Structure formats: C-alpha cells, structure tokens
Amino acid sequence: MRFAIVGSGAVGGYYGAKLQRAGHDVTLIARGKNLAALRERGMSVESAALGDFQVKPRAEESAAGVRDTDVVLLATKTYDNDTAIPIVKQLLDQGAPGAYVLSLQNGVSSPYALAEAVGEARVMAGPTYVATALVEPGRIVQTGTHRRIAFGEVFNIKSDLSPRAAALHEAFVGADIVSEPHADGRVPLWQKYVYLGPFAAFTGAARLPIGPLWADAGTRESFLAASREMHSLAKAEGVTLAADSIAQLETYIGSLQPDTRSSLLIDLQQGKKIEVEGLLGFAVRLGEKHGVPTPIIKALYSVLKPWANGPRG
User: Fold this and answer.
1) What is the mean pLDDT of residues 151-164?
2) How many domains does the chain have?
3) Is the pLDDT of residue 129 over 80?
4) Can you give the pLDDT at residue 311?
5) Residue 313, pLDDT score
6) 128-136 and 53-55: which strand pairing?
C-alpha cells in the first residue's frame, strides 16, 4: 500500500518507519531540520525491547508531488489542524481511487473537522497507544513495547468490519503494529477520550504527574467524576461504552507509574502549545450542545485555556 504520513514526528514517524520496513511505499511529510535529516539519513528507531532499525522513506515538505496515495495517516497535534488538514485534502484529491485518511489524533473532534474538508466517506479514525520520542531530527526512541492502533469507521457505520478497515488491519499486522479494527471506530476513540481528557486536565492544571493527584482521595474522586462527565457525553453522542468502563479506568490509572505525565503537561512544561481545545474545549462545547453538565471539565478548561498557545508574556 502507498502511505503518506502527515505529522512525521514521534508517532507518525514511528508508524511510517514500521510500514516502510515492511515493504510499503511511505512518504513522510515533514519540515525544517527533521525534513533535512530524513532526506540525508532516513529515520532511525531505537527500541531496547523490540530492536533498532533504520529506513529511508521518501520525505517531502508538501503534498505537491505526492500522488496515488492509498492511505493518509494524520498524526499531528490537533492545534496544527488548520495547516495539516489542507495537506490531507490535497493528498486525497490526488490520491488513488478510494483513498482515505486515518486520524490518529487525540480526542474525538478530528473526524468532524476532517469530514468538513474531505467528506465523511474519506475519513476513518482511532486512538493509538505508543510511547515514543523524537529525540533529535530523524531519530526516534521507543520506551516499552506498546504500538497499538485501534481504529474503524466513524461515519456511515455498519454492523460488520468495513473492507478497507480489514485491508488496513492486514497491512498493520504485517508491519508489526498491534492492530485492533472495529466496525464502529467511535468506541475506541471515546474509550480513550473518557480517560485522556481528565488525565490531561488534572495533570496540566496542577502541573503535577499523576502520582500525587491519585494519592489524594478527594482529587481522585474528582478525577473519576470528570470521567463520568465524559462518559455521559459519549452516551449523548450515541456511543455505547462498556458499563464498567469507569471501574476499568480506575484500575488502569492506579497502575500507572507515579511520575507519569500527560503529553499536555509535558508540552506545557516545555513552553509549547497545548491541545486544550481538542481535549477539553470540544468536550465543553459538546456538553452545551447536548445539555450535559460538565462542571469539572469546564472549570479545568478555563484554567488551561490561557496557555493554549504557550506561555503568556
């Protein structure tokens, strides 16, 4: 298959490298020093658990000369969508017949933004679970073995797995990517969002990793209450999650290393933009749309919103 990766950093670059190593035709859309490194040396992936490897996929600064793509993987931060989505559209417009985009972005807002630009029929989505870091241009370091993508259709959903989801599943498995295809891709998206929204909100607002927050009984209960707010939003959106999903979440959070930080907190501490709109603002607006109260998420959104574009001078 022909893949184009929009967002060739720690996540997109990692999956692009895995697919290239498996024999797929991969183009990485990149810029700046990362683009220069990819063109000169390729992409190296270092993993103590899974082994190191290096590949040299095609690297381009724009979509202009990239044609006949089958699948576009979108792996940028949601705050970059204003520039990323037009690139996706161009890649699809000049792609192969039936070309589509798979969004791996955090939250649940991206499929709607993509559909507005390219049409619902060309959009799939799902969360990914991977611990990677772009430690320098063209060099990714992976921690642990997580490399899972759970995905599926998010519009015009049928009871059975779609043929293109089944084909993508085979490509992922062949590339040593743990693949979890779903007939309804909204379910895995919301399963992660119910956890990730509060996790980003609490760690970001407190400027603390999860350990000291979870150790405090009152804060822990507030966290779970925020997750129940998110669960109610999923129900209002017509997405059915497991009845014990909050209990599962509580067990999962309790198993995390105390120094675990959300990506939002890491970006905040590094003086970068943060995904406050995609992770929290969208939830608040959904609550207003459906008449679902989200007092905790709304309060933490208000605290973090001034930091959306980085430190304020």
Assistant:
1) 96
2) 2
3) yes
4) 85
5) 45
6) unpaired
CA separation for the pair 68, 14 (Å, rounded): 22
What share of residues in the chain are helix, strand, coil (percent, to 5)?
50, 20, 30
Tell me the two tokens of residue 64: 């202009």
How far is it, in rounded angstroms, from Cα 24 to Cα 175?
9
CATH number where 204 lies: 1.10.1040.10
* Contact call for residues 19 and 3 (beta carbons, < 8 A): yes
pTM for the structure as a whole: 0.95
Nearest alpha carbon to residue 89 among 62, 61, 127: 62
Residue 107 has pLDDT above 60, yes or no: yes
For residues 79-102, average pLDDT: 98
Share of the chain above pLDDT 90, in %: 98
Task: Kindly state the percentage of the chain with pLDDT values over 70.
Answer: 100
**Alpha-carbon distance values, 37 to 8, 40, 61, 137, 313 (Å):** 12, 5, 12, 6, 33
Are 222 and 177 in the same domain? no
With contact defined as beta carbons under 8 Å apart, do 241 and 187 qualify?
yes
Q: Where a domain ends, among 126, 149, 184? A: 184
Which CATH number does the domain housing residue 84 bear? 3.40.50.720
Show Cβ contacts of residue 90 under 8 Å, excluding neighbours closer than 6 positions.
63, 64
Cα–Cα distance between 100 and 261 in angstroms, integer? 33
Question: Can you read off the two tokens belonging to residue 228?
Answer: 């129940």
Is 282:107 a contact under the CB 8 Å cutoff? Answer: yes
Last-in-domain residue among 184, 212, 246: 184
* Calpha distance 133→141 (Å, rounded): 5
Give domain status of residue 259, yes or no. yes
Backbone angles phi, psi at 140, to 5 degrees: -115, 135
Distance from C-alpha of 272 to C-alpha of 226, rounded to nearest angstrom = 25
pLDDT of 134 strictly over 60: yes
φ, ψ of residue 91 to 5 degrees: the values are: -60, -40
